[in-house]
Design a protein that fits this description.
Elements: E1 6-16, E2 21-26, E3 39-42, E4 51-60, E5 63-68, H1 74-78, E6 84-88, H2 102-105, E7 109-112, E8 117-125, E9 132-137, E10 140-145, E11 151-155, E12 160-163
Parallel strand pairs: 7-12
Antiparallel strand pairs: 1-2, 1-6, 2-5, 3-4, 3-6, 4-5, 7-8, 8-9, 9-10, 11-12
Length: 170
């Protein structure tokens, strides 16, 4: 599988008005990556095709309204609905040690401290207090709280995570 050259930061979920403005469901907390003059990509994050220059982006209810330089009217905007919005990975800020981008964690094989394979980290749920890792194997699903006392190690190089789940979780 080809590694993505970009990271997905949202998805176009609708249009706003008649001037080509888009509604984007954000997967990021900060809009810094969507600053005016920056480039974003719509579509396949492995291709880095379909580059667009951001005119402006601003929060609006539960979405972000975004205007892209090359999308001038509602018809052009409607053709973008459903596409994912990506930015080049090189533009991402460096993280503190022990913190990770979700995209780096998805797909890790998750083991207990006793060596039992729980499956692959399939997705991550954002909750009010802490994230929750959704680990799947053979149609089964385990929810692991993303807490420092539960997640013992993350080894991106070897694609593994070791957890010590709370009593009664498994």
């Amino acid at each position: 599988m080809k590694e993505a050259a970009a990271i997905i930061v949202g998805k176009i979920v609708g249009v706003h008005g008649i001037r080509g403005n888009l509604k984007m469901l954000p997967y990021i907390d900060s809009l810094d990556l969507l600053a005016a003059g920056e480039s974003v990509f719509l579509g396949d994050p492995t291709a880095l095709e379909d580059a667009f220059v951001v005119r402006w982006a601003k929060p609006h209810q539960r979405v972000v309204l975004i205007s892209l330089g090359e999308i001038e009217d509602r018809d052009a905007a409607e053709r973008m609905v459903g596409r994912e919005v990506s930015v080049e990975k090189s533009r991402l800020p460096e993280l503190e040690e022990g913190t990770y981008y979700w995209t780096d964690l998805i797909g890790l094989t998750v083991f207990t401290v006793g060596g039992r394979c729980l499956g692959r980290l399939a997705s991550i749920l954002r909750t009010g207090s802490n994230d929750v890792y959704v680990v799947r194997t053979d149609g089964e699903e385990v929810l692991i709280p993303a807490l420092s006392w539960v997640v013992k190690t993350v080894d991106l190089e070897n694609g593994t995570m070791v957890v010590d789940p709370p009593e009664g979780l498994l």
